[in-house]
Each structure stands twice: as C-alpha cells, then as structure tokens.
Amino acid sequence: MKPVRIAVTGAAGQISYSLLFRIAAGELLGPGKPVILQLLEIKEMAEVMTGTVMELHDCAFPLLQDVVVTDDPDVAFRDADLVFLVGAKPRGPGMARKDLLAANAGIFATQGKALNHSAKRDAKVLIVGNPANSNALIAIRNAPDLESRNFAAMTCLDHNRAVGMLARHCQVPVTDVQRIAIWGNHSLTQFPDLVHARVQGEPALERVDWDWYVKTFIPAIEQRGSEVIRLRGRSSAASAAHAALTHMRHWVFGTPPDDWASMGVLSDGSYGISEGIVYSFPVTVEEGRWQIVSGLEIDDFCRERMTVTEKELLEEREAVKALL
User: Fold this and answer.
1) Domain that residue 20 falls in
2) Do 203 and 54 reside in the same domain of the chain?
3) Are 193 and 310 found together in one domain?
4) Residue 45 confidence (pLDDT) above 70
C-alpha cells in the first residue's frame, strides 16, 4: 500500500514528541496505513532529532516506512498528504500577544510559500503553533495555489477541554456530551458555547447552573492553558498533541453522527462574522471536507462574545497585513 506522507514542523518540540510516536503507531490513520514522517526542524536541533529518530526506529513500528529530517521546508512538505504546523516561537516572559504574532508571522509566510511549492494540492494543513488563527491566515495567503479550505487552525484542544469539564460537572462519560462549539480565536477571547450543547440528549443548560456556566466554565476554558503552565511549569504538550491527532482524524474520517467539531477556518461570512479571518466555527466533516454548521440561533449573549473574539482577529489581521 502506498504510504501517506505526513509532515510535522517543530519536530523537536514537546508537542511533536508526543505526536510522532502515536502517528507511527497507527493512531492517526489506523492499522492498515503505512506512513512516512517528514520532519522539519532548525539545524541547531540536529542532535535532538537524531535521538528522536533513533527512538522511532527502536520502536520497530510496522507502519513506519521512513523518517526524513530536514531544515528545508520544501523538502519537509514535498508531496505531503497531511501537514502539522506545530513549530512556532513560544511566548517569553513579558511578551505580549502582538509580539508573539510578529515573531511568528515570518515563519508561517515562509512555510506557506513552501507548501504552495511542494505539498500535494489536496494536502490537509493543520496549524497548531500559536497564535494559530492568524498564523493560519498568513499560511493561506502565502499558498495561493492551494484551496483555503485545505487549512485549519486547531481549536480542538479548547473543544476537548470544554467537553471534559462539562462531563465532569454533570458526572457523565465524555461520550454523553455533544455539540459543544468553540467560536473565534484560540486565545483568551474565545467563546466556549454551551447554549447549543447537549448532555445525554438534553440541552446542556438544563443540566448546569447559568452562573456556573458564565462565571466558572467560560473563564476556566479560556484560561486553561495558562493554568497548566502555572502548575506544570510548561505548556500543554500531551493534550495539544492529542487534540491535533483528533482534529486530523475528524478531517480525514469525518465527525461522529449527531455531533460536530470545532475548527478555525477561513470565514465565509457565516453568522455575520467578517470574511477573510480564520475564525473557529462548529463544523461537520464528510468525505474529508468540512462544512460550517448552519441554522444555529445566535442570541444576544452569544453574539456579544462572538463579536469580541472577531474584533481581536481583525486587529491581528491588520497587524500582519504586510504578509497577506
């Protein structure tokens, strides 16, 4: 069987370290799909990558046909079917979000150009590195020969956090929670929506107190990443890797029946959101193509929060307009 070529950037980082072995073990595409890993990392991390490749080989994964390590994005993305853009400069002490955006903008412009030149025309490209939404927009604008719908920013981590917290609060399995949505930016302005969610088939807001939703749930999901950093002293690596795997599985195999996923995609004006920004919507996926869930009633509570995060994304777009 022809192997699937999977490119991963920032391959020496903690998220990628958690991700690579699960891909090689078949957790992404299943036990019948051989894979080739094409790993992008800077030259300074060559020794670390040598050690990682040694470990991958030492696992003797039956599905892993080859591992390519390079510092050239054109080589990493050559004929890639699936792409995980994980690598990004992390936020340092005292660094504002706008500083992080400026630091990473050039990286994603370069990678967008390389994807345009080297990746398969139907490659699925998931942007994980933060600020993910605007990094995705930069990559899209620098890859004009690829469809914009081939790109998505990862808000699956926020979605998973919301599912887990609601399930624990209601004391039900996570499989009993459906139709949660993350709207907007993967940032503190995101809106985790329970207005449209279901728990055991019932409206979620019939199972939880409104004050708990507004005063506890929403802030907790928005600030979950910062809280993990505070407690662990490092960012969410394993859960981010799991979310990346889950997002790509949904994209390849489809979303579960009667449920949806959250993906940051290029807005087409749905729900009155400005076109030309990468905004997280609830989506369903069939045959490898996502579709924004339509027909949801948006009340004033939801609209206010959706607008706040839209405004932030418009400001970020303005800040990187030279690269678009």
Assistant:
1) 4-153
2) no
3) yes
4) yes
